[in-house]
Structures are given as structure tokens and as C-alpha cells.
Write a structure and sequence with these properties.
- The protein is an alpha+beta fold.
- Helix content is about 20%, strand content about 35%.
- The chain has two domains: about 230 residues, Cysteine proteinases (Cathepsin B, Chain A, Alpha-Beta Complex); about 60 residues, no CATH class.
- The protein contains seven helices and 19 strands.
- The strands form five sheets. Strands 3, 6, 9, 11, 12, 13, 14 and 18 form an eight-stranded mixed sheet that branches. Strands 2-1-5-4 form a four-stranded antiparallel sheet.
- β4 and β5 form a beta hairpin.
- It is globular and about 75 Å long.
């Protein structure tokens, strides 16, 4: 057991740290053999480009990139393809959305408000090396077996129907280990469940407000806004993906049009015709109507209205396999309350 702890320098590295297998291949010298190395990480980065609409796409783009370095074969700088695959998955996986970029004109780290969807349940299998995928397969098969069994039982129950006098039998379960036997703090299935979200509200990295959204149990989450804590649901969490009115910054705002690619819809203008109404639709707050009479006022409002909470950091925890206990009596006998245990003989 001691060996399980000594391979890592800290608990943070043990439970939150993963490992990449990295291959570098020169694109300008076919005769140059690729080099292989390992890199440790404490988080995965989701880069947000024009084509990225889902978190997994942003993760993949970061794991396949190009760089320029000195080539020993060509004796000059050359372009290399860098390919990374995960060879160790941590128990707790942190994902950072790279939402800030340097805006030279204003000399600030501006925020990218693009809508990038993230899942409540994440499967990291396709990001892993073939060797790790093989190790993950046994536990993944057990998850599938349990899912298939539950589906079959649900179908049988539906076929039989449920009478008024039927009672629901609570089945006791036990949790299986989510780590490999020789690597405490790892993940042995590749399956993760979202546990917490950190959002940022603001226009740049040097300003704004951070809020934590933490899963309490099942579908119940807590929004922790400084000292104000309020319950929310998983549906509310998925609305933190960004997008909405923030896309106005990339569009030409025309108060005489309706709809368009951005998520605001112009209503029929009331009298006088010079006054226009825009319905602001965001993924967090209810729609509201705002009176605006110039294109510049509309554009300015749309830009400011884009300032709401966007997911910045996600924390995924291991999905734990819970299997039914076949002999409940035996299991209950083992669960002796702590206060009934007698002290050991001195």
C-alpha cells in the first residue's frame, strides 16, 4: 500500500494529475524519427476556436497541434506535429475553458463568450492511449452489464404493470473501487460525472466576478455567489455554456431586421418608427424588452448585455459503479456502528 502513495509527490498530483504520452514528428524531414516523451498535467485545456462547439472538440484540438523547434536533421527551425494521448487518468479531472485572449487594440485579455457545450457525464476513453484503453475496458464492461440489467428490469416492470398495493423494494448497493489496484488516485473506467463549475462574469481576466456551482446530490446543485447560496438544478448548470447575446459582438447590428444568426429578435417597432425594441434572450436570465432608437445604442447594449456567467473551469469526479448486494443480511451484520465497538485491550 505504501507504494501507491510514494509514486506521487503530493495528494494533488495523485488525485488530480494525469500523464500524456507525447509524440513529436517533423513535417519537413521524413527521415527524422519521431521522438516520444511524457508530460504531466493537472488540467486539460479546451481551446475555443470558430469551429469548436463542444468541449470534447476543444480538448482534441489542443492534443493535436503544431509547433516550431530546432531540427537536428535539418539544423534549422522546422515545423513539428505534436500528438498527445492520455496514459494516466486522474480520479478528478479538471477542464479549463481558454476564454481569454490578448486584444492588442485595447491592451487587455478579452473574454470569448462563444457557446461551448459541456456534458454532465464525460467519457475520456477516446483521448487515451491504446494501452490505457485496454486497461479501462474491464470496468467499462461492468458498467455496461449493469446498465443492460437495469434496462431489462425496467422493461419487465413496465410489461407487468404496477398494482396499487405494490411496494418499492430498496436494494442495498456497494460501491466498487474507481481506481486501479496499483495506482490509488487514478480512474479505471474513463467515466466522469460533473461535480463543480466555476464561472466568470466580466469582460476581461482582470475584472469581473467568479461564482461556484457545486453538486450537492443527484440533480441538486448549489450556486455559491459569495455568501449567498441557492439551490438550482442540472438544467441550470448546462445553461452556463456561454453564447447567446454575446455573439452580437461578431455581427453587424441592424435595428431594422428581425432575427438573424444572433440570439436576439427584433419585434415589430412601435410608433414612432424611429424607436425599436429588441428582445434580449440569454441562457440565464428571462427575456426582457429594451427600448433603443439608434444602431449604436443597440450595439452598445448588446455588448454590455453579453456580460453574464460563462463556464471557465469544470471539475469532473469519477463515476462510481454501484452494484447490488446479493446477501443484504450478511452485509448489514458487517456494518456495526462505530459507537458500539469496544476499545482494544491495552
Amino acid at each position: 500500500m505504501q507504494a501507491l502513495f510514494t509514486r506521487h509527490r503530493s495528494l494533488i498530483e495523485q488525485y488530480f494529475g494525469g500523464t500524456f504520452d507525447v509524440e513529436l514528428k517533423c513535417t519537413e524531414a521524413e527521415e527524422e524519427l519521431p521522438t516520444h516523451s511524457k508530460e504531466n498535467f493537472l488540467q486539460l485545456s479546451c481551446f475555443i476556436s470558430q469551429d469548436v462547439r463542444y468541449m470534447v472538440s476543444g480538448l482534441k484540438s489542443k492534443m493535436q497541434e503544431q509547433l516550431v523547434k530546432q531540427s537536428p536533421t535539418l539544423e534549422r527551425d522546422a515545423v513539428y506535429n505534436k500528438s498527445s494521448k492520455i496514459s494516466r487518468l486522474p480520479s478528478y479531472l479538471t477542464v479549463q475553458f481558454v476564454r481569454f485572449y490578448y486584444k492588442e487594440k485595447e491592451s487587455i485579455n478579452a473574454k470569448i463568450l462563444k457557446d461551448v457545450k459541456f456534458p454532465l457525464e464525460f467519457d475520456a476513453f477516446e483521448l487515451c492511449t491504446p494501452e490505457l484503453q485496454k486497461k479501462l475496458t474491464p470496468m467499462r464492461s461492468r458498467f455496461k452489464e449493469l446498465d443492460d440489467k437495469q434496462i431489462e428490469e425496467a422493461q419487465q416492470q413496465s410489461t407487468r404493470g404496477k398494482g396499487k398495493g405494490d411496494s418499492v423494494v430498496k436494494v442495498n448497493t456497494r460501491q466498487e473501487s474507481f481506481w486501479f489496484e496499483d495506482d490509488l488516485g487514478s480512474n479505471n473506467s474513463g467515466y466522469y460525472t460533473l461535480q463543480a463549475v466555476l464561472t466568470h462574469k466580466g469582460r476581461s481576466s482582470s475584472s469581473g466576478h467568479y461564482v461556484a456551482w457545486v453538486r450537492q446530490k443527484a440533480d441538486v446543485w448549489l450556486k455559491c455567489d459569495d455568501d449567498v447560496v441557492s439551490p438550482i438544478t442540472s438544467e441550470d448548470i448546462l445553461k452556463l455554456s456561454g453564447g447567446g447575446i454575446g455573439k452580437v459582438e461578431l455581427e453587424e447590428v441592424n435595428p431594422h431586421s428581425r432575427g438573424g444568426r444572433v440570439e436576439n429578435h427584433l419585434r415589430n417597432p412601435p410608433s414612432p418608427p424611429s424607436v425599436h425594441w429588441i428582445e434580449i434572450r440569454t441562457s440565464i436570465s428571462p427575456s426582457s424588452a429594451v427600448e433603443l432608437n439608434t444602431t449604436s445604442a443597440l450595439a452598445n447594449y448588446a455588448t454590455e448585455a453579453g456580460d453574464w456567467h460563462c463556464a471557465y473551469v469544470l471539475l469532473y469526479g469519477p463515476k462510481v459503479l454501484e452494484v447490488p448486494i446479493e446477501d443484504n443480511t450478511t452485509e448489514l451484520q458487517d456494518e456495526t456502528p462505530m459507537d458500539t465497538l469496544s476499545a482494544p485491550n491495552q
